[in-house]
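Worked example

This section walks through a single chain of length 365. The input is the sequence exactly as stored; nothing has been trimmed or padded.
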Amino acid sequence: MEAWVGLMSGTSMDGIDAVLVSFRDSKIQVHTTKTLSYPDALRLRLLSVSQNQGTPDEVGELDTMTGSLFAEAASAVIKEAAIPVSSIRAIGSHGQTIRHQPSGSSPFSIQIGNPAIIAEKTGVTTVADFRRRDMAAGGQGAPLVPAFHKAFFGSTREDRCILNLGGIANITWIPGTSGQPVTGFDTGPANALMDAWCLDQTGMPFDSDGHWAQEGMVDQSLLDDMLSDAYFAKPAPKSTGKERFNLDWVKTQVQRHPDLRAEDVQRTLLQLTITSIVRQLPQTSAMNVYACGGGTRNPLLMSELEKALGSTQLLITSELGLDPQWVEPVAFAWLAQQTLGGSAGNLPEVTGARGPRILGAIYPA
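Given that input, the structure is written out below as tokens.
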């Protein structure tokens, strides 16, 4: 058996998801999974650095620390599978994004989590730094997972939209019989703003099951102000992150509505996620939406999203054979396979790159 490890830590910056997986034709077999949470102090440091509040020394230290944790997560999932390390072809590591600026005269994207440390500590070839080649070719460098969605979730029977509800939400539209290209982009915040506001107001890192938001009410005036942000009307290709949608952004919006209760802001942020997604979905009557990511574990978010979608059916990617928690780490295992096989990992129609590119840098065992 040739196996691969995928490592993913997203914009929520809550920890590392690791999977050990094998691929055969269009089939995926997930063997073991592991989530390694970041210590609270480390998460706070990562959040601070992501807002330009860190020195080069701080970034360097965090690169080493997260690299060691990524290696620990990979080793744990390999150990649990009880297979020899020699059976692991490679590790695909997304790394931890601390800054993503895909626009401007000198676009860049920075992921830390030193892949040399991962390769050294695990003894497994590691593929990382997936975004920069796409950006060098004029792309956004994100989202990259739509290529995986296309490879494994496409259907000739229906149009499908894969909706990732991470810190940032992104969609991949996979037409069925229309012959149109796959498209995808970041729609805006999903959990990032809700988590940031919850931590600031309650000291809790996230709103468990949406209970706190359920105590509040949507304030339409605040919601309208939030939706006026230019990002939501920007045409694709586009990608975003905590550089734009962060706690300071929320507080700037709330300053114009000083009488709101904190729970009303939280409920409005949840509605912002829903409305910004629904407004940017493809205008087609024959589409099912399959959700994945951490937001699928928020019952209030999922129930309100289902209402907002109306006749469009909301499902989760388990219906397509892959648990919503593990879609992204499996995708980076697959991207590592693409890299070592000399195959492109991006979709130019999604990222805006000048063409297909082999992504990532290889760190031999």
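What to look for: The chain has two domains: 3-142+325-363, 146-320.
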